[in-house]
Design goal:
The complex is a heterodimer of chains A (246) and B (116). Chain A has 2 domains: 163 residues, no CATH class; 54 residues, no CATH class. In chain A, helix 3 packs antiparallel against helix 9. Chain A is mainly α and 246 residues long. Helices cover 73% and strands 0% of the residues of chain A. Chain B has 2 domains: 34 residues; 69 residues, no CATH class. Chain B has 5 helices and no strands. In chain B, helix 4 runs antiparallel to helix 5. The longest helix of chain B has 24 residues. Classes of the chains: A mainly alpha (246), B mainly alpha (116). Chains A and B meet through helix 3, helix 4, helix 5, helix 6 and helix 7 of A and helix 1, helix 2, helix 3, helix 4 and helix 5 of B.
């Protein structure tokens, strides 16, 4: 493929990624709005609140430490809480590793840093639908629009915290949007096994501290998919032979 | 809040480091450490497992302690999720499903009334 042609393919895939993740954007905007408002409500100044939004870029980390601010917990305790809350992203990085293995280090780290739940979910959807073409461009197209939506809505939440007449219940709309992302992924026996195991463990661990229940549920889901995939015939266990196109 | 500005920026630096490390851990490990074979195949279900683990406990938050009863369907969170799933499975249009699910929640929960 000529460089010009591959450039056009990349651009088309970036647009495809952005389109694929579009249904998740209202939910991400809701979460950003709520997170921005929460930072102001616990007393963060403008600069640290913007720093959290643009530098940390992690609702999970932010929401893990916000309730601990102003308490007896030191910086290291807060960092440890955020680290545990982030464990599901370690599993995500193992998922991403096979997709990014031929990508140069800087692009790999950058892509890894800003790939969050929704873009990875649409990459998995796309992988189910057929062979992946220019998967990094597709993923980063989704990442870019998600990052833009998250940051803009967080800033709006910070700016409007005092005037917006919204209670914490509104955060549920963001959760609904995340749930809508999960439903189309429910195809095939390993997926249903992963879903069943994950939901069971998540319900048991719903009150565990530091989102440990979520992490245990992810591990249980992957283990269940592995178990079902093993006992199924090979053709079912591997619905899509993977191409190595980066 | 009692943290000084210097402490806040130190916290932001530490959180960035933790987030970066968590999201990149396997991207930085050598190829020999990468999952392969059936484990790698099973890992593709991790995002599905995580999305459900985050959302389902919240969806059933208010009904977990109740016995099964028709009244369950009046729970705003559960009703919204059921509407969303039904529309999604019947029409496969996620934006429509999200709008109808969110409307169901807002009509039943009226979150703006819990303020004041």
């Amino acid at each position: 493929m000529t460089p010009r042609k591959s450039h056009a393919v990349r651009r088309a895939q970036r647009a495809a990624g952005a389109r694929a993740v579009a249904p998740a954007l209202p939910g991400i905007a809701t979460w950003g709005l709520v997170t921005g408002m929460a930072m102001v409500k616990v007393g963060l100044d403008l600069a640290p609140a913007l720093g959290m939004t643009f530098i940390v870029y992690s609702g999970t980390s932010q929401l893990a430490v916000l309730p601990m601010l102003g308490g007896a917990a030191g910086l290291l305790a807060m960092t440890a809480a955020a680290a545990v809350a982030n464990l599901r992203f370690v599993v995500y990085s193992a998922v991403l590793a096979r997709h990014l293995r031929r990508v140069p280090l800087a692009l790999r780290i950058g892509t890894g840093f800003w790939t969050i739940d929704a873009p990875l979910a649409v990459l998995m959807q796309r992988q189910k639908a057929g062979p992946l073409v220019q998967r990094v461009a597709f993923l980063n197209g989704a990442n870019a629009i998600v990052a833009l939506t998250w940051c803009a809505s967080s800033v709006a939440g910070i700016a409007l915290a005092a005037v917006l007449p919204l209670g914490p219940e509104i955060a549920y709309l963001g959760l609904l949007a995340l749930f809508a992302l999960a439903v189309p992924l429910l195809q095939g026996r390993p997926a249903w096994a992963a879903a069943g195991a994950s939901v069971a463990v998540a319900l048991i661990g719903a009150d565990w501290p530091h989102r440990l229940g979520t992490f245990a549920a992810v591990l249980a889901g992957v283990a269940a998919a592995l178990w079902v995939g093993r006992s199924a015939p090979r053709s079912q266990a591997r619905p899509q032979p993977e191409k190595s196109t980066p | 809040m009692t943290e000084t500005p210097a402490q806040m920026w130190a916290l932001i630096a530490l959180l960035t480091l933790v987030t970066l490390l968590a999201r990149n851990l396997f991207l930085l490990l050598p190829p020999a450490w990468q999952p392969r074979g059936q484990v790698a195949q099973a890992l593709r279900y991790a995002p599905l497992a995580a999305l459900l683990a985050i959302t389902v406990p919240e969806i059933v938050r208010d009904v977990r302690s109740l016995p099964l009863a028709p009244a369950l369907l009046a729970d705003p969170r559960l009703a919204a999720a059921i509407v969303l799933t039904a529309v999604l499975m019947l029409s496969r249009r996620s934006l429509l499903a999200l709008v109808l699910g969110s409307t169901t929640f807002l009509l039943l929960a009226r979150p703006w009334q819990s303020l004041a």
